[in-house]
Design a protein that fits this description.
heterodimer, A: mainly alpha, three-stranded mixed beta sheet, 3 strands, elongated, B: alpha+beta, three-stranded antiparallel beta sheet, 3 helices, 46% helix
Amino acid sequence: MVKFTPREITKNVNVSSTSPLREFFVLLGGIFGVIVIAYMILGIALDILVERMPDKLEETIGRFVSKRYALEKEPGLNEEKIQKLLDDLVAYLPEDNLDFEVHIQKSPEVNALALPGGHIVLFSGLLEEANSENEVSMILGHELGHFAHSDHLRGLGRGLVLVVISSIVFGVDSTFVDVAQRALITAELKFSRQQEISADEFALELLYKKYGHAGGAVDFFEHLEAKQNLPKFFKFLSTHPNPSDRVTLLSEQIRQNSYSIQDVIPLELEAYDKFE
Amino acid sequence: MDLLWALFFLGLGYFTGTAIEKKHYRDILAQEKMYFSLPVITSKKLEDETRIDESQLCYGSVVISLDYFKRFLAAMRNIVGGRVKSYESLLDRGRREAILRMKKAAAGLDADVILNLRFETSGIGQVTRKKGSIGSFEVLAYGTAVKFKQQ
């Protein structure tokens, strides 16, 4: 028989000697690094493309969004009045535009959303907090400012890119994609601080064009400062800058342009049913 | 919140997995020393078969489970490619443990040599495919235990 010499296995050729922890951090860092860089590059490309997006495409997205948010065809309570306020403001915007529609969502929350396709959603809680037409026009003008600067498309685009990359890399069902989808939803609702400030400036100018004075511009935010702790304001406060900062910046803008402050027009709306 | 749980399980998997692996290797090395004198070869036949008194099938099998940390490392490797080092030590332990158990079985039969060693490795349940399931694998080592005539 072949001579058999038993030997201990001292050096294990079948197992690599790298530390698993090191491999963990290197791989994780590497993969996330690549994703972050790709995301940033696509974000920049998106910013450039969004400026050149044709209105027809946005209208198509708008129809899709209407279905997703179940925005009704029948005008809801007070919607016609608010739509009139909106139409008045839109008259001061340049010609080639989306058809802006306001939708009032019955909810105790105080919030306003700008959705692709020219849809502005106001929550009824917000209408109940507003005391004058001017305040509501200020808020509508703010949303119109977001549209004018294509802010909503930028946020949506970036979030979408992240979801698509994650789906390709990790497969559609993975936890990473869930996290990315949640980030997409927050991205839909939240704009950067600079975008918010620009939207406020736009709104003030629009308000002045319609009413001839700047009365009511800061009223809403001043109410907000006093009531910050109530839960119904939570969403609004977490997605917009500090109300006192907005008041400061708007007051500065009013002073610089020497806008006068005159009496506001009170808001007459039908009351909504109370929530339990 | 899910992220926190994932991190917790990753940490748990790393620490328990590493401890279990170290202990397993210590046991394997000790036992390998014990069974040194029982040779295992992959040849199917011996040159001189007149020496053979008895022969019988012997086999050893072991089922080893992945831990969460190793699986996560392998998942990342599945994206970028390269050697899945986290599984290497698992399979090595499985093979060596299976051989040891086979030797134990053969020693129980008073065998002098084990011929025709072969391995089978298979995943139990869904080892790496389904999200969230950890999975385990079995290594089977089998051969022919041969006892020589007394001389």
